[in-house]
């Protein structure tokens, strides 16, 4: 993060009431509280432990927790609008970008990522144990062509299938809403999802069908943006690689969700400010291992219209990408 971006965030949240109290002893300067919170967001493992921060800042454990809590409250209140579903004009702009890649009507890329927990949750801990043999939360992320997160849903155990997590989200219940999608618009996902009218995904099995193989190639090419989005998010805010907070009750679950949300708010804000991320100086880790488990019964093949929709998108995608300037003609 650049110095200018830091001061811009400070300006946006500095007057929030959470930093002012009626006590005769005033709080420490807001810029110190913000710096402490950003430092904690940006470290994982031993680097995120309170003892390291205490030695670095000369501040007690309790004060660091209080500073971080205040900053998170202010970020959500003053900058929560950074995570927003695009309006009709915004969706049209996104769709125009993906039309050039062979997906006219695509208004976002969806994928899931695992946020590791440092400790086993107290209740139903086995449900948080994922395919990578650690405890985690599953976070569903939808981003646009600029790698800005336009929607996310978290709080589900790490063992849950991506489709299950999406099914429990508020977005699932509004997939047919005219406020979220115009006619012909959809999201693009990998084979961890099932085809729906508003969700076009790649084939889990192609059966040697070259058209399906080519279609999967086109989807993978278009979806690189989502992988980069998640990679940059976790590379900027290393705490999302492992959150060192116990999960014992609903209050602590809400705290973790707030932590993740604030990191995403900052991610979007820095992209909006063109605060460039250098892959050379800070390499990102792409998560290419698709969830190979089968979707849960009852969700699989939810909508036959979705299969037809995928076939329609596939035909148009292959036509576009087989043109001289298309991906498949290279």
TrEMBL record:
Family of the protein in this entry: Belongs to the HARBI1 family.
Cellular localization per UniProt: Nucleus
InterPro entries referenced in this protein's UniProt entry, alphabetically: HARBI1-like, HARBI1_dom
Cofactor entry: a divalent metal cation
Single Gene Ontology MF annotation: hydrolase activity
Organism of origin: Riccia sorocarpa
UniProt domain DDE Tnp4: residue ranges: 110-268
Main localization (coarse): nucleus
Gene Ontology terms: cellular component: nucleus
Name listed for the protein in its UniProt record: DDE Tnp4 domain-containing protein
Keywords: Hydrolase, Metal-binding, Nuclease, Nucleus
């Amino acid at each position: 993060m650049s110095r200018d971006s830091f001061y811009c965030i400070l300006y946006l949240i500095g007057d929030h009431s959470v930093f002012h109290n009626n006590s005769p002893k005033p709080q420490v300067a807001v810029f110190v509280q913000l710096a402490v919170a950003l430092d904690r967001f940006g470290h994982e493992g031993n680097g995120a432990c309170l003892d390291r921060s205490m030695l670095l800042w000369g501040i007690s454990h309790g004060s660091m927790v209080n500073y971080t809590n205040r900053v998170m409250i202010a970020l959500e209140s003053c900058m929560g609008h950074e995570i927003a579903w695009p309006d009709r004009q915004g969706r049209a702009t996104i769709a125009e970008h993906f039309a050039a890649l062979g997906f006219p009507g695509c208004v976002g890329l969806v994928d899931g990522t695992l946020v590791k927990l440092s400790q086993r949750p107290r209740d139903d801990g086995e449900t948080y144990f994922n395919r990578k043999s650690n405890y985690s939360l599953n976070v569903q992320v939808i981003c646009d062509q600029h790698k800005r997160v336009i929607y996310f849903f978290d709080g589900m155990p790490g063992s849950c299938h991506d489709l299950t997590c999406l099914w429990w989200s508020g977005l699932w219940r509004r997939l047919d809403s005219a406020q979220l999608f115009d006619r012909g618009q959809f999201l693009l996902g990998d084979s961890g999802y099932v085809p729906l009218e508003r969700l076009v995904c790649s084939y889990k099995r192609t059966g040697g069908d070259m058209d399906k193989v080519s279609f999967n190639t086109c989807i993978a090419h278009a979806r690189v943006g989502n992988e980069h989005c998640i990679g940059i998010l976790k590379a900027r805010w290393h705490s999302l690689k492992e959150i060192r907070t116990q999960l014992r009750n609903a209050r602590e679950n809400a705290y973790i969700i707030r932590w993740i949300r604030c990191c995403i708010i900052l991610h979007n804000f820095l992209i909006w400010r063109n605060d460039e991320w250098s892959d050379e100086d800070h390499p990102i880790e792409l998560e290419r291992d698709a969830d190979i488990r089968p979707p849960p019964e009852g969700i699989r093949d939810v909508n036959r219209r979705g299969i037809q929709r995928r076939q329609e998108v596939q035909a148009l995608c292959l036509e576009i990408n087989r043109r001289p300037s298309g991906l498949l003609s290279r």
